[in-house]
Amino acid sequence: MKKIIALLTLIIVLVVGANAFAISGKEVMQSAKDRDTGNTMHALMGMDLVDDNGEVKPRTIEVWGITYNQEKDLSKSIMEFKSPASVKETRFLQVENDDRDDDKWIYLPALGRVRRISASEGDSSFMGSDFTYDDMETREVEEDKHKLLRVEKLGKYECYVVESIPKDLEDAQYAKRISWVTKEHYIPVKVEMYSKKTGKVQKLLTVKQNIDKINGIWTIFNTTMKDLESGHSTKLYIKRSSSGAPYIEYNKRINPSRFTQRFLKLGR
């Protein structure tokens, strides 16, 4: 009997081990990138800048996004700051490219002109937040080497834990990233970003575990980026109406002219 139990135990261990690694780290990250996010998106969002003493500076942003190349899954997005007055009418346009870095432009009302964001500014803060310009864009799966470290539960979600190390470290912002990607939605709900200088976690991205479907699309409602070196953090969240309904919609028609430098400057 003991031999039978030992054999069954061995079989269970082998089966569980095989199932745990039936998917590779690269496949997990590719599935996360390929998940359905709609052909268009429109949302009203809050951005809270929180200093190390807990003081909050709230902002309101309206965001539009559109997939302009279905075959290559390339998108354009534009953000417009609605409040406070110090940043009102600031607009940011980003265009994904297939074979080069994303194009990024920002319109600052105080200057009255559109300024292109160069690739060398990728690690600069976006509007005083804990997100850099590089953080704002989707990193290509092929740019990193991915390793599935383990499968574990984080809060209420079963997650794949994947380590991603840049193939070209000099061109990357971080030494590596470790992502907790949900099995159910293929959404990263936690990402550790490691400093190239210290080798320690520099920033931590966390997603509130209230993921739900809007217009059939799995949606994140609350995200926090915390800089562990400064203690500063930035909270991004979908605004809600008095009834509690989130201000976000997918697959509604958006005029393509909104995603142009003309709109960036004029707001129309």
Automatic annotation (TrEMBL):
Entry-linked Pfam families: LolA_like (PF17131)
Q: Which UniProt keywords apply?
A: Lipoprotein
Task: Say which species the protein is native to.
Answer: Orenia marismortui
Q: What is the lineage of its organism?
A: Bacteria, Bacillati, Bacillota, Clostridia, Halanaerobiales
Question: Cross-referenced InterPro entries, in alphabetical order?
Answer: TP_0789-like
Per UniProt, residues of the Uncharacterized protein TP-0789 domain are 75-265
Which named protein is this?
A: Outer membrane lipoprotein-sorting protein
Q: Which domain of life is it from?
A: Bacteria
